[in-house]
Amino acid sequence: MCTFLESSYDFIKLSPEEKEDMRHGKMVTQMHGRKKRQRGQEALWKNSQTSSLKRRTPPHPTPPRPSRSQQSWDLEACLIGGQDLDLLGDGVMEDCKRPVHFYWWRGEEIIVHGHRKGRVDAVRYQINDTPHNQIRMSKQLPEFVPLDYSVPIEIPVMNCKPDKLPLFKRQYENAIFIGSRTADPYCYGHTQFHLLPEKLNRERLLRQNCADQIEVVYRANAIASLFAWTGAQAMYQGFWSEADVTRPFVSQAVITDGRYFSFFCYQLNTLALTAQADQNNSRKNICWGTQSKPLYETIEDNDVKGFNDDVLLQIVHFLLNRPKEDKSPLLEK
C-alpha cells in the first residue's frame, strides 16, 4: 500500500509538505518495525540458547565410553602414528577420512523404460569410498609382477547383473578422486587403512551364523577400495578405457575391525573395462591378501593381553615398502 501511494502522488494531488510528512511517517514506521523485529529475534535467540544449554548439559555429565573397536583403533594409531611415517622418507602425505571416488563402464544393457527404451547402453558404476587414513607418495610403488603377467589359475567370470545381488541402482554424481586434486605432486597411493563398520562386526556375523562371510568382508572391502584408488590414480595420469595403462599401479590396504587385521596388495594392470576395449584384453588386475589375525587377545582395565607381534611386524613391512630408487641396500637385503 505504501508503495502504491508513493507512486501515485501525482494522481491524488498532495502538496509538497504533505508528501514530505508521508515520507517521514513511512520512514519512522519502518524504523520502529525494524527495531521491533530485532528485539524479537534477540529474545528468540537468547531463549534458544538457554533451552539448548539446559538440554545439552546434564546435572552430572559423564564422558562417553569409547567402543571396543575405537579403543583398539586408538591403540593401533599409537603404534603407527605420524612420527613413524619417517620410515617412508620424504615425499609422503597422509590423509584422514578423505573421500576416494572412481567411475567406470563395464558391460552393456538394453534400456527398458523411458524415452531411450530399446537402446543398448553401457552399465555405469561408481565407487564412493572413505578410508580412515591413507598415505600418498610422489613416486610409485614397485610392481609385484610384470604388466602382462598371466595368472596361472582359472578366474571365474560373473555375468550376473549387480542389481540382482542385490546392489540397487542409485543416482550418483560421477566423480574420480584419489584424495587430492590433479595438481598435487603426491599423486600415487601407498597404503590405506580401513575400519570396518559395526554392522559387519565379527561377533555379529557369528551370531547370525555367517562365520563363512567373515573373511569375505575383509576381501570385498580391500578389492573394491584398492581398485577404486589405483584406478583413479591411473586416470589422473591420463589413462582410461581407450588408452590403457602402460605401467602397473600398485597400492596397499590394511582392513581392520580394531582387533583383527588383514593385509592386501593390489596391482592395477588394465583400465580396458568397457565391452569394446575388453574384447582381446588378456591383462588382469590382481589382489593378494592374508587371512585376518588378531592384534591382541583382549583389553582389561586398559591393559593389553596377548599382543601379537607378527601383526605389528606386518604393518611395519607395509610402511617400509618404497619405490625402487628409494630403497636402501639394507632394506633390499
List the helices and strands and how they pair.
Blueprint lengths: L1 H5 L2 H4 L3 H41 L11 H12 L12 E5 L3 E11 L9 E10 L3 E5 L50 E8 L6 H6 L6 H23 L12 E8 L3 E9 L17 E4 L3 E2 L3 E3 L2 E3 L3 H12 L8 H4 L1
Parallel strand pairs: 5-6
Antiparallel strand pairs: 1-4, 2-3, 4-5, 6-7, 7-8, 7-9, 10-11
Pfam families: PDCD9 (PF07147)
Protein name: Mitochondrial ribosomal protein S30
Keywords: Mitochondrion, Ribonucleoprotein, Ribosomal protein
In short:
The chain has 333 residues and is of the alpha+beta class. The protein has 8 helices and 11 strands.
From the structure above, extract its key features.
8 helices, globular, two-stranded antiparallel ribbon, alpha+beta, 7-stranded mixed β-sheet, 333 residues, single chain, disordered N terminus, 2 domains
Question: What would you say this structure looks like, in words?
Answer:
Residues 20-72 are annotated as: Disordered. It is found in: Mitochondrion. InterPro entries: Ribosomal_mL37/mL65 (IPR010793), Ribosomal_mL65 (IPR039982). The chain folds into 2 domains: 2-56; 68-332, no CATH class. The chain has 333 residues and is α+β, with helices and mostly antiparallel strands. The protein has helices spanning 2-6, 9-12, 16-56, 68-79, 202-207, 214-236, 309-320, 329-332; strands spanning 92-96, 100-110, 120-129, 133-137, 188-195, 249-256, 260-268, 286-289, 293-294, 298-300, 303-305. 32% of the residues lie in helices and 20% in strands. The strands form 3 sheets. Strands 1, 4, 5, 6, 7, 8 and 9 form a 7-stranded mixed β-sheet that branches. Strands 2-3 form a two-stranded antiparallel sheet.
